[in-house]
Each structure stands twice: as structure tokens, then as C-alpha cells.
Design a protein that fits this description.
Layout (H helix, E strand, L loop, with lengths): L33 H23 L3 H13 L5 H18 L9 H35 L1
């Protein structure tokens, strides 16, 4: 649940649980507020009975799916939840990468021409190196 600026729950006005207890039922003090405590116990038990009835009506496939999700949805620490949220955001950003554009035909032609010029230069350098070795042989 998202808290308001004053730390209260926007739905029921109570203090919003924090830390590792964010998912646990928060009971009022039974000594200071016995009526509130009794009401909360009845409400929690009513919800549990409704859940049991809903699960009992499920088909075996629905039940397996429900149990798998219940295992997967185990509460984690604030840092773990934040880390998983950032991982999901990063994955969605990578999934939305712009497609790689097809190479520009003009660039391809220029790269081919450059390769030919480099090959011709290598031939000329080999000829020059060959002439230098022939000159050295003649001088000896």
C-alpha cells in the first residue's frame, strides 16, 4: 500500500507497515483497544475462511497454478524488491532498443573502395621493397 505524506495508509488511515513486516497483518494493542482487536481478529478470520472456500472450489489445474504463484510471490526485503524492480525496468528498456538499421549502400561502396586502395598500396610497397633488395644485391 502506498502511504500518504504523513505515513498513514491512504485506504484505511492507519500507519503503513514498513520493512520486513509490510505484508503481515497489523493488530491493534489488545489491552488498550480490546474492541478494535476483536474486530480485527474477526475480519482476518473471515478473510481466511473466504480464501479457503475459494481455494476449495478450484479445479486441480487452477489449484496448481494458485500454489505455484503463492510460492513465487514470497515477500522479500525492501532492497530485494527494489533490485527486482530495477531489473524489470532494465529488461523492458533493452526490449525496446531501436532496431539496427540496414547498412547504408554508399558507406558499403566506400568501404569496398577503401579496401581496394589499401590492397593496391600494399602491392606498391612490396614492389618498392623488392627494388630496394635488388639494389642492395647489385651494390654487393
Amino acid at each position: 500500500m502506498l502511504a500518504l505524506a504523513n505515513g498513514r495508509c491512504r485506504f484505511h488511515g492507519g500507519a503503513t507497515p514498513a520493512g520486513r513486516a509490510w505484508h503481515r497483518v497489523q493488530y491493534p494493542d489488545p489491552i488498550l483497544h480490546p474492541e478494535k482487536y476483536a474486530k480485527k481478529v474477526r475480519e482476518v478470520e473471515r478473510r481466511r475462511q473466504q480464501r479457503r472456500a475459494r481455494v476449495a472450489k478450484m479445479t486441480p489445474e487452477e489449484r496448481a497454478k494458485y500454489e505455484a504463484r503463492s510460492k513465487a510471490a514470497q515477500p522479500r526485503s525492501v532492497a530485494e524488491r527494489e533490485s527486482r524492480r530495477r531489473d524489470r525496468e532494465a529488461q523492458s528498456l533493452f526490449a525496446r532498443r531501436p532496431p539496427i538499421a540496414a547498412p547504408d549502400p554508399e558507406v558499403v561502396a566506400l568501404e569496398k573502395e577503401l579496401a581496394e586502395v589499401r590492397a593496391y598500396r600494399a602491392q606498391l610497397e612490396a614492389l618498392l621493397a623488392g627494388q630496394d633488395t635488388m639494389k642492395d644485391q647489385i651494390d654487393d
